[in-house]
Amino acid sequence: MTEYPVTAQNRVRQISRKASYDVDVVHRILDAGHCAHVGFVQDGAPLIVPMLYGRDGDALLLHGARKARIVRLLEQSPRVCVNVTLLDGVVIARSMFNCSMQYRSVTVFGEPALVSGREQKLAAMRVISEHLLPGRWAEARDSHEREIKMTGVLRLPIDSASAKISEGMPQDEEDDYALPLWAGVLPLTLRSGELQSDPADVADMAPSQALRALANKAF
Question: Global pTM?
Answer without folding.
Answer: 0.93
